Amino acid sequence: MPSLKDIKLTKLGAFVLDLSDQVLYRDADEVAIEPKVMALLLYLYKNRDRYVNIEELHREVWSDRIVSDTAVRSAVKKLRLILGDDDIANARYVKSVSKRGYKLVCEITPVDTLETNTQPAGNAPASDTLSETVPDPEPEPLPSAGPVQVEQPKAAPHAQGKLFNVLTILVTLIAVVIGWTKYDAITQFVLDSQVASVSEFEQLTEFNGEKYDLSVSMDGRYVAFTGRTSIDEDRQVYLLDRQNNKIRQLTYHANNAAFIQFAQNDKVIIYSDLVGNKTSVQLLPLTLSEPESGRITLIDGVVTVGDPSRGRHASELLLPILVDLESEMTLYALDLQTREYIRMLAPSDASEILFDVGLSPDKQKLALIKKIKGQFHALLFDLATKEETLMYSSKNALFGVKWQDNTALLIIGQGEIFRIDTLAGAYTKVIEDRGDVLRGFDTHDGKDIVLLQKEFSRAKRLYIEHQLTEQIEVSQIVNTAPQVVAMLYDEQSAEHRWVMHLQGGITTIGRMAMSTRETESYYSSDENIELLDVSYQAGGFLFKEGPKLAFYSFEHSQVQYITSSMETSSDAAFSADGGAIYYGVNVAGEWEIQSYDITSKVSNLLISGYRSIRPAGSGYIVAEPIDAQLFYLSDLTGPAKPLNYPIDFRYICRWYVRGDHIVWTAFDDRNTYLHKLNWRTGAHHVSADRFYSLFPSVAVDQAGEKVLALSVQLNDTSIATIKIDH
Question: Measuring CA to CA, how many Å separate 626 from each of 325, 483, 652?
């Protein structure tokens, strides 16, 4: 051991911390500790007079890299294990308080020297017994005849016990000193060995048609789901009896049944239905032989309803609802007896979207899946204290959350279903989905998991070019691999297309040759990317990377970020001369259009009160923030001429100005609507096709004569199950 003179030491409970060499000791023996865990301990010691929140730890301890909140909590857990602080409720070293953070609470005193523990002579440490002399036993009398048998002396029983204790301690010390560095690897190996794969599922149905959402009854026997067998059909409600494996169709006249949930002790089924751009919530009584004959409309005429879940009593349902375009996605509690619903939880950010919610079995907490500024988050909301705690963040999509028990969550994301211990913050993969085919799940007991399993990670697809005439006609079919997720026209070459290619979680923007399908790659990212426009005049392409608006320069082969991840921005477009980028941004709750100069890389206010803009002739077409109504501006200071049509701001929709025409898409879950408006004369035409046949993220050529649209086949889906015992 190196000399311990003249070093700065401080006592932390039963440990001694060397602040100069950053070493932790116990009983003069060095304790194995990872560098980041040591950095965490040192920072908590430095700020021992206060609580340190998780954001500060990200900023100060993990300043050299970006990690999830789960990684920070994992480091805290490792520190607690090292310190033997295993009772979180009665912490002796590291105390945590929700919303406040972590604090070092042990006794802290400076010391001059590092001393070993000493014991009285009559109780020497076990390690000293190795040098003790064990007395020989008294010799037994020799037998009267035969050769003399000399026996080896035996250790006294007391000495044997001491020797066993010594060996036990030595083995433990070796395990700690040598094995601790392998702790993470061993732990991960054990956890990985328990991960189930898609190949282990038991299929409850065949891969026959699309299945959208499912719900499992309280006893696990029945599975209600929504789906259809072809693109030309509307989604209906079905019931699977797991006891006899029979499927019964419950509705025949639903317009587009989506989310579904058992309620009132499994006596009814609740489902959301979409008609045009309005959503309703319907109730089906399962006590009737023909449930659709007793259908009751609970809510009607709202914009969007999210996935419902069971409430705090048998007749309560929790529903994320977007009531109108001027409101935000809000969680409501619907009483099925009185038909009244009250607001439970409103968003705290304008960009916040609530995807899924689940109530804990003890009715004390809500688990929430939200998307905020392009990031997905799993959070806990305490119904008593009204406090919200972040449990997990991901740039990749999180599709749903269920409670495994009162302290553990099951979350389905891209490529996996994982478990989060809400007390320790520990993350454990439960099901591995390498093919990325899982999109929904439910469980009645936390162990019997019922899932929606798609046949392909992405359905088979084509890109179809339409002539933009009064009667839209197909002029070309472009067959591509499923990995091509977006395609734009190339204004300089009819033999090329700009594409987005998604594979293995990496999205690549490139230029594809139509003859060979070979792609020249320009930019790749593991973030969610949305390709907006390409301009050779501007010298690059415009895209969104997560919530950030960005421009890629062909000349410099570099990305310029126009907005930050903290800003809420709309779509964007190039100016008429290609020297600037126009984009909408939300500033303090109000939308405005800003102009970003590509050369100087500086943004300035262009005009307030609008969310989206396109150059049109010598003027502009603008869209209002709330109802997306279109207006023509001959200049930025003159009066706005109403065009009497709204566009659709939803992220998969597109709008273009080509000469005298505005072309845009809108959709409901049944159809995509393609609009063409002459902004000079007011002449308007709209055509409709099935949502999958004509996906809303279309591209329009520079002449405004052709539309390129993605056409997707149904992705056949099965219902499968697996038991999770850990």
Answer: 6, 35, 18
Give the integer Cα–Cα distance in Å for 666 and 375: 25
Residue 721 has pLDDT above 80, yes or no: yes
Q: Angle 642-648-654 (CA atoms, 0-180°, nearest 5)?
A: 105
Residue 40 parent element (H or E): helix 35-46
| Residue-level pLDDT at 718 | 95
Coil, strand or helix: which one is 628? coil
The amino acid occupying position 649 is: F
DSSP 235: P
Task: Give the Cα separation of 163 and 115 in Å (integer).
Answer: 26
383 burial class (0-12, 13-18, 19+ CB within 10 angstroms)?
middle
What is the token pair recorded at 282?
A: 């319907």
Beta strand pairing call for 196-197 and 427-432: parallel
What are the CA-CA distances from residue 507 to residues 182, 370, 521 (Å)? 35, 23, 10
Residue 212, number of CB atoms within 10 A of its CB: 19
What would the DSSP string read from start to end of 130-160?
A: GGPPPPPPPPPPPPSSS---PPPPPPPHHHH
Burial label, 400 (beta-carbon count in 10 A; 0-12, 13-18, 19+): buried
Beta strand segments in 405-505, E: 408-413, 416-421, 427-432, 438-443, 448-454, 461-467, 473-479, 484-489, 496-503
CA pair distance 498, 495, nearest whole angstrom: 11
Sign of CA dihedral 383, 387, 393, 395: positive
Round the CA-based radius of gyration of the chain to a whole number and report it.
33
Contact (Cβ atoms closer than 8 angstroms) between residue 574 and residue 581? yes
- List the one residue out of 640, 704, 691 whose CA is nearest residue 277: 691
- Residue 149 has what pLDDT? 41
Q: Which residues pair with 382 in a beta bridge?
A: 365
Q: pLDDT tens across 443-502, in order?
A: 999 999 999 999 888 777 889 999 887 767 787 888 888 889 999 999 999 999 999 999
Measured distance between the N- and C-terminal CA atoms of the chain, rounded to whole angstroms: 43
Question: What's the pLDDT tens digit per position in 604-629?
Answer: 999 999 999 999 999 999 999 988 99
How confident is the model at residue 133, as a pLDDT? 35
Both structure tokens of 633:
């501006």
Residue 106, pLDDT > 80, answer yes
Question: Which of 358, 379, 260 has the alpha carbon at shortest distance from 311?
Answer: 358
The amino acid present at 671, given as its one-letter code, is N
d(CA 346, CA 30): 51
Residue partners of 167: CB distance under 8 A and separation at least 6: none
Q: Does the pLDDT value for residue 536 go beyond 70?
A: yes
Per-residue confidence (pLDDT) for residue 346, from 0 to 100: 78
| Residue 312 token pair | 């705090």
For residue range 107-156, list pLDDT tens digits in order. 888 887 666 543 333 333 333 333 333 344 443 433 333 333 434 444 44
Average pLDDT for residues 338-356, to the nearest whole number?
A: 82
